[in-house]
Design goal:
The chain is an alpha+beta fold. Helices cover 50% and strands 25% of the residues. The strands form two sheets. A four-stranded antiparallel β-sheet has the order 3-4-6-5. A two-stranded antiparallel sheet has the order 1-2. The chain starts with a helix and ends with a helix. The model has no long low-confidence stretch (mean pLDDT 88).
Length: 150
Amino acid sequence: MKKSRHQKIKELVEQYQIETQEELADKLKEAGYAVTQATVSRDIRELKLTKVSMGSGRQKYTILTHSEHYLGDKYIRVLRDGFVSMDMAQNILVVKTVSGMAMAVAAALDAMKLKEIVGSIAGDDTIMMAVRTVEDTKIVMDKIRNVLEE
């Protein structure tokens, strides 16, 4: 039952913009799962769901992919050591790095295997990333911040 419920949670989080545990519990109940708030809370922890900004102060749950959550220590160190800043221009994310570190930081970001990113180009101290949508760009920025702050 737990495995089935976890699969359903993944589907719901990808399909809907779920902001709270209560919303998730309601969607699960609609799908035929009898859950308590404590069960939903535990499931969120076990699935390692995280909240990302949707803009206008709202947030939603999202799933960190296995590779994001278990990025090798080497990649995390490279990302933290080389990262300087990031900014968006519509659906293009520009990441500034320490001089000479753009390719290494780009490799670390590629290792995250973010489905929102179409591709990236690295120079000496700048990475340009083509992202699917403006909203996805905000999501990618939040995911990068999460890795940097861990």
